[in-house]
Design brief:
The complex is a heterotrimer.
Chain A (H helix, E strand, L loop, with lengths): L1 H20 L3 H21 L3 H25 L15 H20 L17 H10 L5 H22 L4
Chain B lengths: L3 H21 L3 H26 L5 H31 L13
Helix pairs in contact in B: 1-2, 2-3
Chain C lengths: L5 H6 L1 H18 L7 H20 L5 E6 L2 E9 L1 H28 L5 H18 L3 H19 L6 H32 L4 H9 L5 H18 L8 H7 L2 H26 L4 H24 L4 H18 L10 H29 L15 H4 L1 H15 L5 H15 L3 H27 L10 H19 L2 H12 L3
Antiparallel strand pairs in C: 1-2
Helix pairs in contact in C: 2-3, 2-5, 3-4, 4-5, 4-11, 4-14, 4-20, 5-6, 5-11, 6-7, 6-11, 7-9, 7-10, 8-11, 9-11, 10-11, 10-13, 11-13, 11-14, 12-13, 12-18, 13-14, 13-18, 14-16, 14-17, 14-19, 14-20, 16-18, 16-19, 17-18, 17-19
Classes of the chains: A mainly alpha, B mainly alpha, C mainly alpha.
Chain lengths: ~170, ~100, ~500
């Protein structure tokens, strides 16, 4: 388990670094897929099998592909004329390192930091439980409905913005 | 078993890489890719907390699903905006978008 | 599976009506021919008015909705005096937004029914924010109000400025969502819950956890981006300048109200125990926002950009009301003062933007401050109204802005934040310089301004000017209402 986790973590982080530094945007989007796939494996390791599937279907299947489409439609940028990073990139790098250092330091001072996972109760069905929670009025039906309204609003907006002018 | 800390550190690292991408990249689509990395860092956190705190309370997983939905909605609107800007200006490099400056 | 409780529906009734209305409007608009788009605007306004009626019928009732079984304190949404007041204010904002938009869209050739649908969706997000009592809902409400605003900013599809504004607003907004989400994840990790009331209970037992504080700070950073507080304001002026003017008017007022509601819900009800750490940050944010916003506004020659910086500066004043949020003796008065100021700002702001719209010509012409020269000679009523709005934004009597600032500074002083009050007064004096420049241009210089003569625009401007003056003479009733609404929260 530990070795698997380490390999996955290295894959996720290395491909994430490629995403933010590669000149060619199609490659960046492909690296994003690798990174997202690593996260999906992590979800499976955390016993969240449904989320792992959704990660692959929604994130890789829809979002990443949408990115590749957008890159193709804005073709002139694909070859990346000029530099991929702006001139102040080292300030950004410094800020990100500081953010990471700060978060890591603060997290390691937290008393729940080295917790081990809680035990699952016997006959616990994670997927059924999640499904119930999403449509139970006493749990999360409201967020579920609001998310659908959000998707409608986004759909209307995206279609309006991207559609061809007459 | 793997301690919670490993997940949290991984998530913090992924978040920081995404942050770097947002701040340092010049292309709008690349910035959006950085934002996606940040969202994924959040999801790792949420699911890890769900698993390690109390897996019978579904808050963490539900929130992760909501994050999926929101990310999809944001990407749809964002890429539509990118394409529309490209049509008007033939560029999506943020530094070149300088019609509005004081 | 338990059936949906009727009470749950009742708590959210105005919101549900508005969302259904928005969806129906989207469909009905398909059958409205291009020449008669006024009908869509009218229907949108009617929906808002109907929702306002239902909201006002909730006055005085208090309830929770979508609660966990057996745990009545863990709920998704609440209904209280504060939410009713804020919702009413938001719906008023929406009505004013429709009134300003109708003629403008027609004149600029971007008259499309989607505009009103998206606006209704955005308002429903704002209303949900005012009623949220769970971090999941807070986040969803934030996205529901922001996504349509990104699209509305880019609504003028053939205008590069507008497109650019939309893209910049989107990138900034999505970036800030990342921060808010990470903060929420940490808060969830520290407490094991996303319910605001439960977070409060867990946080008030024992020492405050470090994780919780970082989470709260990250949420504050994200909200800071959303309300354009100063270190996070970089692209805001670009957005406000580039977006179609009625959208800017709607954003500056609506997003401020919703941001204020979010701050109050999240920090006021979940993190009052963290006030020792959070209050100094808020203090600094508020002071920096007032100073930078007002100083940068002086240099502007474009009226939209000037009002954009003015809007940032006003975020600082409104944040001021939030600084003493952890002190239960001062907080109710201070929050009530903040609400009153929001009302004053909304009315004044819509009036001022209305005048800007009246003078704006196609292709972003008529937007320089020098274009206002000679307005008094040609259109004395319009010039008079603009003078009232400028006075109100500075805080001169007899306007709502003056009364609002008076309540605000008084509350802050009674909380013991003398330094902040002094910064507020000094920056208000500085702001007089650039607001009065508009007035001087209108009254002293000669010019040939062109304006648009559209009934609803004139009506809004005149109404806003009237309310700004009249309510400043009798503000006590309104302030008492705000105080009563807020008092129960603490």
């Amino acid at each position: 388990m530990t070795i698997l986790f380490l390999i996955i973590a290295i894959v996720i982080l290395a491909s994430a670094v490629m995403v933010v530094t590669t000149r060619n945007l199609v490659h960046a989007a492909l690296w994003l897929i690798v990174s997202l796939f690593g996260v999906a494996v992590l979800f499976a390791m955390l016993n969240a099998g449904f989320l792992a599937v959704v990660q692959v279907v929604v994130y890789i299947g829809a979002i990443a592909i949408l990115f590749i489409f957008a890159v193709m439609l804005t073709r002139r940028e694909m070859r990346g004329h000029g530099k991929p990073l702006n001139n102040n990139w080292w300030i950004s790098a410094l800020l990100s390192l500081l953010t990471f250092g700060g978060l890591a330091m603060l997290l390691s001072n937290w008393d729940g930091f080295s917790q081990t996972p809680a035990d699952f109760p016997s006959d616990f069905d994670g997927v059924a439980e999640l499904g119930n929670a999403l449509i139970d009025p006493n749990q999360f039906v409201l967020p579920f409905e609001v998310a659908s309204i959000l998707l409608v609003a986004a759909l209307v907006g995206a279609v309006y913005i991207a559609s061809n002018r007459k | 078993m793997i301690p919670l800390s490993w997940y949290l550190i991984l998530s913090a690292a992924l978040f920081s890489i995404g942050l770097f991408g947002v701040m340092a990249r010049r292309n709008a689509i690349a910035i959006l890719l950085g934002i996606e990395l940040m969202f994924n860092a959040v999801n790792i956190n949420l699911v890890a907390f769900w698993r390690y705190l109390d897996p019978t309370i579904m808050n963490g997983q539900v929130f992760a699903i909501i994050v999926f939905a929101v990310a999809a909605a944001e990407v749809a609107v964002g890429l539509a905006l990118v394409i529309s800007v490209y049509r008007n200006r033939k560029t999506v490099v943020v530094d070149d978008l300088d019609l509005l400056k004081w | 599976m338990p059936p949906i409780n009727f009470n749950d529906i009742e708590v959210l009734l105005p919101l549900i009506i508005l969302v259904i209305w928005a969806c129906l409007l989207l469909l009905v608009d398909l059958f409205i021919p291009k020449k008669h788009k006024w009908l869509t605007a009218l229907l949108a306004a009617f929906g808002l008015a109907l929702t306002l009626g239902f909201t006002l019928s909730q006055l005085g009732s208090e309830s929770n909705g979508f609660c966990a079984t057996g745990k009545p304190s863990i709920c998704m949404v609440v209904l209280d005096g504060f939410s009713v007041l804020v919702n009413a204010l938001l719906l008023l904002t929406g009505l004013l937004g429709v009134a300003l938009a109708y003629g403008y869209l027609k004149r600029m050739g971007i008259e499309r029914g989607e505009y009103y649908t998206l606006m209704l969706f955005s308002i429903s997000g704002m209303m949900l924010m005012a009623q949220a009592s769970d971090l999941i809902i807070v986040f969803l409400a934030l996205e529901l109000l922001s996504l349509p605003l990104y699209v509305l900013s880019a609504f003028a599809r053939s205008n590069s400025d507008s497109q650019e504004a939309g893209l910049k607003y989107f990138l900034l907004g999505a970036f800030s969502s990342g921060f808010i989400l990470y903060g929420i994840a940490l808060v969830y990790g520290a407490t094991g819950s996303t319910s605001l009331s439960q977070i409060f209970e867990i946080a008030s037992v024992g020492t405050s956890s470090l994780l919780l504080t970082i989470g709260a700070a990250l949420i504050l950073v994200g909200l800071g981006f959303k309300v354009a507080a100063v270190p996070f304001h970089m692209w805001t002026p670009d957005v406000y300048q580039g977006a179609p003017t009625p959208v800017t008017a709607f954003m500056t007022a609506g997003a401020k109200i919703a941001g204020f509601a979010a701050l109050l819900r999240v920090f006021g009800s979940a993190f009052p125990n963290l006030s020792e750490d959070i209050t100094p940050i808020l203090w600094a944010l508020s002071a920096a926002t007032m100073i930078v916003g007002n100083l940068l506004a002086i240099a502007q020659t474009n009226i939209k950009r000037m009002l954009a910086y003015s809007s940032i500066a006003h975020t600082g004043y409104i944040l001021m009301a939030f600084v003493p949020y952890g002190n239960p003796e001062v907080a109710p008065v201070s929050i009530a003062a903040g609400l009153f100021y929001l009302f004053a700002y909304t009315i004044t702001n819509f009036g001022a933007w209305g005048v800007v719209i009246a003078l704006e010509q196609k292709e972003s012409k008529g937007l320089q401050i020098s274009d206002y020269a000679g307005l008094r000679r040609k259109y004395p009523v319009l010039a008079g109204a603009m003078t009232v709005f400028m006075f109100s934004l500075i805080g001169f009597p007899p306007t709502l802005g003056m009364v609002g600032k008076f309540y605000l500074f008084r509350a802050v002083l009674s909380g013991g934040y003398t330094g902040l009050a002094i910064i507020g007064v000094v920056t208000s004096l500085v702001s007089a310089f650039y607001y009065l420049r508009v007035v001087v241009n209108m009254y002293m210089f000669a010019g040939e301004p062109k304006t648009d003569n559209e009934f609803w625009l004139r009506f809004t401007i005149a109404g806003a000017a009237l309310v700004t003056v009249v309510f400043s003479l009798v503000p006590q009733g309104l302030f008492a209402w705000a105080s009563r609404a807020v008092l129960k929260l603490f």
